[in-house]
Design brief:
alpha+beta, Glucose Permease (Domain IIA), 8-stranded mixed sheet, 3-stranded antiparallel sheet, 13 strands
Length: about 230
């Protein structure tokens, strides 16, 4: 019912990053182990990964790269925050969509709503500054998460602040504040926040995948990426 509601209400593509970039300048990006090109890249280094993404954009004459929903990634192996000796409980399945673009790019509210919470999540490989918005439609509440922002994005922010669709709510942070990644936005839809505040898992293990697929549907329901 949740995904049906979203599909029926939001039928036009929604931009949440760099509104000056047209969708024809987007290109998909594969960060899974099936991408053999990544075998030559030290993905534990944000600098090396950023070089790879820049070359990918240049090769495709694009300005923004996107992808990653339910993608298995080896990049999380570098951080004990995600890693585990047990493959079943290792958190390596990405449950949002990433949009990779220049640092400082504007981040926009996907929909009308209010600020549910915000926080600087400082674990290695974590979100860094994060904003979560609450949305209410047809007597149904759900949430959108915006991770890897700049520190300025959460300075002076207040819980309960009203935002409108398309309002600028922040900017992409650099690797020294965004969890040590190339600049990008982690965008995620969440049905039930489960009492999290300023944070919500964006990567899960195989054991919990069924739950998170139901609670965090594909953000492309809103973004309608090419």
């Amino acid at each position: 019912m949740f995904t049906t509601l979203i599909k029926s209400v939001f039928t036009k593509p929604i931009h949440v990053l760099a509104p000056e970039i047209n969708s024809v300048d987007y290109v998909s990006l594969d960060l899974s182990p099936s991408n053999l090109d990544l075998k030559q890249v030290d993905v534990s280094s944000s600098e090396k990964l950023q070089e790879y993404i820049k070359l990918h954009l240049k090769h495709h004459n694009a300005k923004l790269a996107y992808g990653g929903y339910l993608e298995v990634r080896d990049i999380y192996k570098r951080s004990m925050y995600f890693n585990s000796d047990d493959r079943v409980t290792e958190r390596n399945i990405h449950i949002g969509i990433d949009l990779w673009c220049e640092v400082g790019s504007s981040v926009l509210a996907a929909l009308d709503g209010t600020v549910h919470s915000f926080k600087n999540n400082t674990n290695h490989g974590d979100y860094g500054p994060t904003i979560i918005l609450k949305h209410s439609f047809s007597d149904f509440d759900f949430y959108t998460l915006y991770g890897h922002l700049s520190l300025d994005s959460i300075v002076g922010l207040q819980v309960g602040k009203t935002v409108k669709h398309g309002d600028k709510i922040g900017e992409l942070g650099a690797s020294n504040v965004n969890g040590d990644y190339p600049p990008h936005l982690h965008f995620q839809i969440i049905k039930d926040m489960q009492d999290y505040v300023g944070d919500y898992p964006g990567v899960c293990c195989q054991l919990d995948l069924e739950f998170y697929v139901a609670n965090c549907p594909d953000p492309n329901l809103l973004l309608n990426l090419v």
